[in-house]
Design a protein that fits this description.
This protein is an alpha/beta fold and 154 residues long. The protein is 27% helix and 16% strand. Bound molecules: manganese (II) ion.
Length: 154
């Protein structure tokens, strides 16, 4: 982290995907309290988070709007993806506005964070749906990074 600080680099850890144990393997970053523990462990502005809506949002006990507000000054990258959770704890990817997570509320919280900090947070619309007639079309990149100021990173 000191090297990141000296280089002006902001680290942003991605949550576990999926945010629960598979094959008995332990997980590290699955909940808001996990993310808080990482932030608390190294109190540096270089120690930040990727708010992956799809990963954190796969758990019903993660409130994405609450997390965006709680970590407003430490979210350095956002993956916008929505999911629909099933009763057995599994989930599947959904359209951005048709899943179980409040994507509008999330964006509102992130825009508020940007306004407060004056810093644009890169946001990637994860796993965008590519329509058959768009394949190969010039400029179609579902993974394109888009920031509030329409800077393109991908
Ligand atoms: Mn992600």
């Amino acid at each position: 982290m000191p090297s990141a600080e000296s280089g002006g680099i902001k680290m942003c850890i991605h949550p576990d995907d999926p945010p629960f144990s598979l094959f008995g393997l332990p997980r590290v970053v699955s909940t808001q309290s996990d993310a808080q523990a990482i932030i608390d462990a190294v109190p540096s502005p270089s120690n930040g988070l990727t708010l992956c809506a799809g990963s954190y949002g796969a758990r019903g006990d993660n409130d994405l709007v609450c997390m965006a507000n709680a970590f407003a000054d430490r979210i350095y990258f956002v993956h916008l993806r929505n999911v629909i959770r099933e009763a057995d704890g599994s989930f599947f990817e959904s359209e951005h506005l048709c899943g179980d997570n409040d994507m509008v509320g999330l964006i509102q919280a992130l825009l508020k964070a940007e306004t407060k900090s004056g810093i644009s947070i890169p946001m990637r619309p994860d796993h965008g749906h590519l329509l058959a007639d768009e394949i190969g079309a010039d400029g179609v990149k579902p993974w394109l990074f888009v920031s509030r100021t329409n800077e393109r990173f991908g």
